[in-house]
Structures are given as structure tokens and as C-alpha cells.
From TrEMBL:
The gene is clpS. Residues 16-95 form the Adaptor protein ClpS core domain. Binds to the N-terminal domain of the chaperone ClpA. Belongs to the ClpS family. Gene3D superfamilies: 3.30.1390.10. It comes from Eubacterium plexicaudatum ASF492. InterPro entries: ClpS, ClpS_core, Ribosomal_bL12_C/ClpS-like. This is ATP-dependent Clp protease adapter protein ClpS. One of its GO terms (biological process) is proteolysis. Involved in the modulation of the specificity of the ClpAP-mediated ATP-dependent protein degradation.
Length: 99
């Protein structure tokens, strides 16, 4: 069977971009600023200046977005930070919200 002369339709399949989620850090009166900066550097890969800026933003505003990631990565980072906070005895809280 020959396809000469026939027009073939091409359907373009556009893959959906995965949704992204913000990691929101919440302020509390017990978690130390040093601990928050350490979490931002070691888990969220911020440099010292950015980590301190974000920590102060959380401190002054009560909460701040500290990164945007695919869902699985956002949740993993929050769980890792929560485990470290628990080990240190801090009531540190982070949430994940759709960006």
C-alpha cells in the first residue's frame, strides 16, 4: 500500500510541564536564626548572603518562600529540614504550596 498523494496529519504532543511548588518557611520564637541559616545553606543550597536575607525575611514577615521545586523535591526538602529540627528540639515549621 502506497502513501503517495495522501496527506498525513501530524499531531503534536506537548508534554505538560510538572507543577511547581513553593517551600514556605514559617517563623517561630524558638528556632534559632543560626539553625535556619544552616538549613537554607545545606538543604536549600543558598549561599550565606541569600540564606541570611531569607532568614531575616521569615523573621520579619512571619513566613517566606525559600524555593520553588517539583512536588517530590519540595516535600523531600521539607521532610529533611523537619527531621533535623526535631533532632535539635526546634518546633521549626515549613509547608509546601502550589506555585
Amino acid at each position: 500500500m502506497s502513501l503517495q498523494g495522501q496527506t498525513r496529519e501530524k499531531t503534536k504532543i506537548k508534554p505538560k510541564e510538572p507543577k511547581h511548588y513553593q517551600v514556605i518557611m514559617h517563623n517561630d520564637d524558638f528556632t534559632t536564626m543560626e539553625f535556619v541559616v544552616d538549613i537554607l545553606i545545606h538543604i536549600f543550597r543558598k549561599d550565606q548572603i541569600e540564606a541570611e536575607r531569607l532568614m531575616l525575611l521569615v523573621h520579619k514577615s512571619g513566613r517566606a518562600a525559600v524555593g520553588v521545586y517539583p512536588y517530590d523535591i519540595a516535600v523531600t526538602k521539607v521532610q529533611t529540614a523537619a527531621a533535623r529540627a526535631s533532632e535539635e528540639g526546634f518546633p521549626f515549621r515549613m509547608t509546601v504550596e502550589e506555585a
